[in-house]
Amino acid sequence: MTTQERQLRLDNHAGMMTARQAGAFLVEVGVALRYGPSTSLPLASMYHAIARHQPPEAEQDAQRRATELTNALIADGTAIETNAIADRVVVLHKDLAPAVYALRRRVELDKLELSDDARRVLDFIAITERPTAGNVRDHLGVPPKTWPNRADDALAELQRSLVIDRGGVEVPATGAPYLSRDGIPYRVFDREHPAIVAAAKELDVPTAAKFLVGRYLAGAATGTRRKLRLIFKACLSAGELDDAIAALVADGSVTVEKDQVRCLPRSSKPDAPTRR
Fold first, then answer.
1. Which residues lie below 8 Å from residue 150, measured CB to CB, with a gap of 6+?
2. Which of 9, 64, 127, 205 is the most exposed place for a label (fewest CB within 10 A)?
3. CATH number at residue 238
4. Residue 61: which domain range?
C-alpha cells in the first residue's frame, strides 16, 4: 500500500460513521470522487473512504451511509458537487471551490461558450422551484427512458463550468440510496454560493492554479505530471499546470524528480490563496 493510497483512504481501513468525520476527511484531501474509486485516477472516493473495510461491511450498507454523509456535507455547504475535476462527479471542500470557480469561470456568464441547450436549461433552472433532471428532460422534450440525452448533456455542461450545482437530498429508507423520491435539485451556482463567487473574483489564474494543485498534492502526497494533467484538464492548460508546479517548488512546497511531483511534509494543509 503506497503513501498516496493511505492518505487518500484507498486502503483497507475502519471507515467513517459521522458527517463530522467525512467533513474532516474532505478537508484533508480537498477533492474526492462522489462515488466509487477509479483505477486510473489517483483521487479519493467518498464511498471507499466512508465504507468499513476492517471488518468488511455489506456494500449496500456502506453505500447508504456514504450517500447520507455526502448529502449532509452538500446540504450544509461543506462540500460542492461538480464534474470540473477529471470529468468525473466529485465533491470539493468549500475552501477549494473559489479556486476552481476562478479557473472555470474566467469570463462573464454571457460570454461563456455554452450550447443552445445549456442556455435553455440554465434559463429554466433559474425560474423553476427545485428543478430536477426529470424536469429538465420534460422541458427539452426528451422521450422517457432515453439515454444518453440532450438534457443530461446540457446539465453536465453547465455543472462542468460551475454555472449550476446539485443540492443535497434525504436518502430514502428503502431502495437505492442515491435515488431520491423527489429527485436531486439543481441550483444556479452564483445564486446559491455568493461567498464562493466573491472569493473567486479576488483570485488571478496563477494564484488559483497554485492553490488547487498544492491542495491536491497536500492530500495525495504525490502525483505525476501526466496524472495531474488528466485530473485538472478542464481547469488548467499544460503550461498553467507547469507554472503552478514551478511556483510550488519555489516556495518549498513540493519537489520534482523527472515526472514525479512530491509534496514536502507540512504541519497543516496549504493556507487559502492570497487575494490579489
1. 117, 140, 142
2. 127
3. 1.10.10
4. 3-95
